[in-house]
Amino acid sequence: MTIGIAGAGAFGTALGVALARDGRAVQLWARDAAAVAQMQASRENPRLPGVTLPDTITLTAALDPLFACETVLLAIPAQALSGFLGDYGARLSGKALVACCKGIDLGRMTGPASTIRDLVPDAGAAILTGPSFATDIARGLPTALTIACADDASCALLQQLLSTPTLRLYRTTDITGAELGGALKNVMAIAAGVTIGAGLGESARAALITRGFAEMQRLVTQLGGQAETLAGLSGLGDLVLTCTSAQSRNYRYGLALGAAQDFNTTTTVEGIATASALRQLSLDLDIDLPICTVVADLTTGRTDVKTALHALLSRPLKEE
Ligand SMILES: NC(=O)C1=CN([C@@H]2O[C@H](COP(=O)(O)OP(=O)(O)OC[C@H]3O[C@@H](n4cnc5c(N)ncnc54)[C@H](OP(=O)(O)O)[C@@H]3O)[C@@H](O)[C@H]2O)C=CC1
Ligand SMILES: O=C(CO)COP(=O)(O)O
Predict the structure, then answer these.
(1) Which parts of the sequence belong to the Glycerol-3-phosphate dehydrogenase NAD-dependent C-terminal domain (predicted)?
(2) Confidence (pTM)
(3) Mean pLDDT of 284-308
(4) Are residues 99 and 201 in the same domain?
(5) Does 185 carry a binding-site annotation?
């Protein structure tokens, strides 16, 4: 069975490489025909330098080969997902669609798997998420991820299909917990980066990560997800990775923000839009999300680091 992957960015390509190396045939689609031609010729993706694309990956800029696959991984940024599904949802109905992105859609206020469920109701909506840098997956380093899908039997099939000897998938039916964990950890990673970038210290970062996790639990449980999911790979696992590693783009963006330095605006930093979505959700649902709100205010220039820090530290003292 050929696995389709929409989006030949770092993550889509890394997943394709891992699956192809383990014997799966992969159709890797990108919208830019010139970039596809260049990758075909070089068997390398500039977004994932130093990794040779196995022969069993077929690159394509045409959509028909992608739509011929029964399982399609959607590895495009979270804010682009609803547009893609709006354009092509009719061609994707009945398939297993696995979101491979992390974020909350600013227009719809939904996580990636929920966006699939809403826009392509008769597809099997799933999400693949958890702690993993694309380069680690592509290098064949050991990685463990969460696959979430409402139906356990379908989830088990996807778990088998997408696991390899070095890419180990755990499954859950808690889509809400899994998709929100992945979305929120990026916002927390920006905050952690700001903390270090502004010279506030590693103790402050540990406090930020811990209170960030409390914030994640508050939102997830109020929206019907499970605290246990957040304690797993898609929540705590990815939170720890992204808040402590300079490989993370969200963390690096936060570092630059905290140090008042420029940052390349073409880099995919999912936490920026997601922070604004969460700020709005906090107001709409009356849920206390102080760190997400501060990150949204920082990234949109509504506040500065000094004021943001004061806002967090001057909150009333309370029970842990
Ligand atoms: N990189 C990583 O280590 C990991 C990333 N992820 C998640 O994967 C998702 C993708 O990130 P990543 O691959 O790193 O990002 P990249 O910036 O490397 O690539 C993004 C890809 O998406 C494509 N794209 C953007 N907008 C659209 C659109 N409207 N329609 C079709 N294709 C589009 C881009 O194409 P073009 O070049 O034409 O703009 C590009 O190929 C994110 O949600 C991220 O959080 C998850 C785990 C690890
Ligand atoms: O999600 C990731 C690791 O699990 C990648 O993080 P960044 O998008 O911050 O680089």
Answers:
(1) 174-309
(2) 0.98
(3) 97
(4) no
(5) yes
Ligand 2 atom nearest to 238, measured from its CA:
4
Indicate if ligand 2 lies below 6 Å from the C-beta of 84. Answer: no
* Pick from 7, 5, 12, 19: nearest CA to 56: 19
261 plus 116 within the same structural domain: no
Asked whether residue 14 is marked as a ligand-binding residue, the answer is no
Q: Quick: pLDDT tens for 66-84.
A: 999 999 999 999 999 999 9
CB 56 within 8 A of CB 93: no
Q: Which atom of ligand 2 is nearest to the CA of 131?
A: 4
The protein residue with its alpha carbon nearest to ligand 1, atom 26, reads: 80
Domain boundary among 154, 173, 192: 173
250 ligand 2 Cβ < 6 A:
yes
Q: Does residue 320 fall inside a structural domain?
A: no
Which positions are annotated as active-site residues? 185
Domain that holds residue 285: 184-314
- Examine the domain organization and report whether 264 and 158 are in the same domain: no
- Give the integer Cα–Cα distance in Å for 219 and 225: 9
What are the CA-CA distances from residue 23 to residues 135, 157, 252 (Å)? 19, 17, 35
